[in-house]
User: Fold these one by one.
Assistant:
Number 1:
Amino acid sequence: MTGACLRHARLSKEWPPRGFSMRLVWIAAPVALLIGLCVQPAFAVCNISDAKLEEAVLKSPELRNPENRYLVRDLRTLRNAAFLLWSYGLQDDCERLLANIRQLIAAPSMAKLGGNDEDLADEQVAAEEPQQAQGGEVQGKRNTPGAGPLINLDELEPGLRVDEMVGAEVRSSDDKIVGEVRNIVLGTKNRFDYAVIASGGFFIAGKDSIIVPLRYMQVNQERNSYYLRISSTDVKAVPLMPDHEYLWLADEAWRAKNDAIFEKLDSHPVPFDLQAGQQPTIKVQ
C-alpha cells in the first residue's frame, strides 16, 4: 500500500481507500494463479490406473482366453511404457498410449490386425537389440585365446535367471549357431526342465523350435551364449516342437522320444540333482 493511500485513509476515515480494492485485485489475481500452479501434484495429468488393465484381465473372457496370453503380456508392456513416459513428464504421449491400451482392452481382436511380413519382422526385432551384443554369428569364438571353459547350468553361482536365457543365442558343441532361446519350461512331477530353442537361426521370425532338456546345455563365462552338448550335425536329428500350444508337455510318448535322442547323442549328461563339485557316476557296460 502506498503512503498516499495511508494518508488518504487517515484523513477521510475511509477504509479501504478508493482505488485500493482494484489495485489489490490486480496484484492478487496473478499471485493466486501462481500458487495454484505450484500446489498441483507433479505428473497428475496422465493417470495410468485409469486404464484398469488388471481389472479387465480378471473380467474379460477374451483376455482370460489362454490363446490371448501374449496380448495380456503386451498390454502390460505398454502400461510399463506409459509409466516411463509419465516419469519423464511426457503427459500427452502417456495419454495417447493409454488411449491405445484402452482400445486393445475394448477390442482384443485388434491385436490380430498386424502384418505378417517376415522380412519386416526381422528388421523390427533386430532394431531392439544393442548392436554390440546381437551375437548370432555362424561360427563362434570358442577357439580364440583366453576363452574360458563352458559351465554346466547346474554349477552356476549365483543362480541363473530366466530373463538371462530368453533371447540369448544357442550354439552347438562345435560352436555353430543353432538359434535363440525362446522360452523356458520348468519341470514338474519329476520331469525335466526344458529350453525352447528357435531352430532356424538367430532372431528368425519362423515358428520352428526344438525342445532341449536343460541338463544337455552349458553356458560361457560371460553368460551370453548357451551351448548344446551335441554337434551341429546331430542337431538336425532333433525333431521340431510338434505344436505351439505346448500340448506336447502332456504327451509322455513324444517327450520320451525327444529326450531319448539327446540321451543317445550325449550319453553323459550332467544330472541336475548332484551337489556342487560332485561328479556324475558313469556306469561302464
Number 2:
Amino acid sequence: RYLDFFVRTILVFGVGFLIPLLVVLLNFAGVLTGKALISWWRAIILIIFLFAAIATPTGDPGNMALLAAPIVLLVAIAVGICVLNDKRRARRDKSRGYGQWDDDEASLIEPSASDLNLPDDDS
C-alpha cells in the first residue's frame, strides 16, 4: 500500500507541475493568448482546485491546498510569461510589417499561371 501511495503522489504532483509548461508551450505555438488566459482566470483556478481535490490521496482540504497552491502560483507565472510573449510577438510583427493585415485577410495572388522553366527532356 505504501508503494502505491508513493507512486500515485509522485505522478499527481508531476502531472500537476507540467500544466504551466503546457500553457506556455501552447502560447509559444500561438494557440493560447495571454489575454484569453487572463479572462479565464476564475475557471483556471477552479479547474486546478478540482484537479487537486480529485488527485490527492486523502480527502482533507489541507492536502488539496498543498497541491493546488503551488500549481496556481506556477500557472500565474506562466500567464505572465504568455503576456510578455504576446507583447514581444506583437512588437516583432509590427516591425516586420505584418501588423497591417488581419489574420483572416487573403493575400494578393496573381491569378495567371507562371512559367516553371523546366529543363527540356532531350532523351
